[in-house]
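re: that chain from earlier
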Amino acid sequence: MTSTKKQVEVKDKIEGDMMDLSFLQLTEVPMKDIASYKKVRELDISTNRLVRLPPAMMTLTHLVKIDLSKNQLKELPENFGDLKKLKHLDLFSNQLKQLPLSFCELRELKFLDLKDNPLVPVLGEAAGDCVDAKSCQLAAKKVVNLMSTLKEEVEKRLRKEKEKMERQEREEQEAEMRLLEQKRREKKAEKQRRRNQAKWNRPNEPTASGFEDSGFQEPPVTDNSESLNRVQPRTPTILSRFTPSMHRIVATSLVIFTAVTIARWNGPMTTENAFKNVKKKL
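^ sequence. v structure.
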């Protein structure tokens, strides 16, 4: 019963394409009732006790004129710019300090009254005093342009912050990759160092006589077939390169050479012995 009465009252407030809901002490916008009348182009909700507007009100995109003067609005919805067909907007005597960035989308706006609002200085300067149609039209143009500039600056700052965050993220990823690569190289170097240390600390084992005499050591026989072909050399000397048979040959040659030299020796080299050697040759 109450719902029917409400609907009848709203219907009684419609005259042509205008709905007049002023002076009703409303604390909320009756969205359900308003949305049911698609032919309404102008909405007057002035002189009520509205503190906020529902975001759903921005779906009334067919509205071209809205009067919200003499309420207690402290802010407008962020999507207020969805009312792109809006040409006349009266916000006189509210509690507005700022406007949403989407306000720049109201390109069709030709009338704007923001008097008697505690606007921030830059917005108050653009809005000016709406005292006649010309000044209100100029206010609409200046405020829309100001909000466009502010939106561009905000978007630019957001892009820079996003690029900065992406750059920092890339740098962190690159630093992490470098750290991982450094740890991998250090681990590889440490593994190679331990392998070399184990190789040089390996005890000598008995080898075949040929390798033993020449200074080379055969690798120990293990179950690992890959180690059979590896030989760990020790620093060889010149004499260690000869086999025992070659040592005997060299020793015998030295003995023979010494005996011949002794047999041919004619004593110390004096003047007398020198003359004797000359006579023998003659």
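The radius of gyration is 54 Å.
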